[in-house]
């Protein structure tokens, strides 16, 4: 019923497991509770809401998808470039990455230390840039300052994923997010990808509206709960 998550366990320093609930009516909570004794935290993931007082809903995760059509027009803007570690500020990327996680379950759940949440997003952008988790890290710059970025990941021969998107809070309202998304789609097309997806939280209305305005369609809703042994 519960699978140990090695990466999460190593990163946070305690045992973490994952339980995928296929049928809420058949969810054997007493059995789950007994098995969960081996973990400090278990993520419970379900396509339906689970109404139980012992588990805490921390995220309603939405997956948006968009088909990259052959006639998709390439999007270009002189302020958009590929991040260059030798000339661009990685410190700015880290700050933006942390800001992008405002609605993240690792930030929403107060049982996580704020330093742990920030370290997670710093590691995410580090892996994207320096460990090539991302095919491309696209930045938007004005007056030599990075005001936003997005990352393009490849998840199959035909499918891409936008891993992180962030815009400086002081630069919002300038359509930077839309420009980043459109350019990322153009980059995906150049990589011969046919579809692209992006995941966000239901409560993150600016992101939800951004993806809808860029032509993405909601394809999946998942409810994520945290069950702690504290």
SSE run: EHEHEEEHHHEEEHEHE
Main sheet specs = 10 strands, mixed
The percent range for strand residues is: 25-35%
Outline:
globular
Low-confidence stretches: none
Helix fraction bin: 25-40%
Order of the strands making up the biggest sheet: 1-2-3-10-4-9-8-7-6-5
| N-to-C CA distance | 21 Å
**Oligomeric form:** single chain
Total helices: the number is 7
Please tally the β strands and state the result: 10
On the 0 to 100 scale, the average pLDDT is 95
Task: Provide the fold topology.
Blueprint: E1 3-4, H1 6-12, E2 16-21, H2 29-35, E3 41-46, E4 56-67, E5 80-82, H3 90-100, H4 105-108, H5 114-130, E6 136-142, E7 145-154, E8 159-167, H6 176-190, E9 195-201, H7 205-213, E10 217-228
Parallel strand pairs: 2-3, 8-9
Antiparallel strand pairs: 1-2, 3-10, 4-9, 4-10, 5-6, 6-7, 7-8
Helix pairs in contact: 3-5
Written description of the protein model:
With 230 residues, the chain is of the alpha+beta class. It has seven helices and ten strands. The chain has a ten-stranded mixed β-sheet. Helix 3 packs across helix 5 (114-130). The chain is globular, with a radius of gyration of 19 Å. The protein starts with a strand and ends with a strand. The mean pLDDT is 95.
What key attributes describe this structure?
230 residues, alpha+beta, ten-stranded mixed sheet, 7 helices, 10 strands
Quick structural overview:
Helices cover 30% and strands 32% of the residues. The protein is an alpha+beta fold and 230 residues long. The protein is globular, with a radius of gyration of 19 Å.
């Amino acid at each position: 019923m519960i699978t140990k998550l090695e990466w999460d366990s190593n990163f946070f320093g305690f045992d973490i497991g994952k339980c995928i609930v296929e049928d809420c009516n058949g969810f054997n909570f007493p059995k789950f509770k007994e098995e969960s004794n081996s973990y400090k935290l278990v993520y419970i993931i379900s396509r339906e809401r689970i109404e139980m007082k012992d588990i805490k809903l921390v995220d309603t995760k939405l997956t948006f998808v968009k088909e990259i059509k052959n006639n998709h027009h390439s999007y270009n803007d002189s302020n958009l470039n590929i991040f260059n570690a030798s000339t661009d500020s990685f410190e700015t990327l880290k700050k933006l990455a942390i800001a992008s996680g405002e609605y993240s379950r690792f930030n929403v759940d107060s049982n996580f230390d704020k330093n742990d949440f920030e370290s997670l997003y710093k590691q995410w952008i580090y892996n994207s840039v320096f460990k090539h988790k991302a095919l491309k890290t696209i930045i938007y710059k004005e007056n030599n300052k990075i005001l936003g970025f997005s990352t393009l990941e490849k998840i199959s021969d035909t499918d891409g994923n936008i891993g992180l998107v962030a815009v400086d809070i002081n630069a919002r309202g300038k359509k930077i997010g839309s420009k980043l998304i459109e350019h990322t789609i153009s980059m995906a097309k150049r990589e011969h990808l046919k579809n692209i997806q992006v995941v966000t939280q239901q409560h993150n209305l600016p992101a939800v509206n951004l993806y809808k305005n860029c032509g993405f369609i909601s394809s999946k809703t998942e409810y994520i709960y945290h069950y702690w042994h504290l």
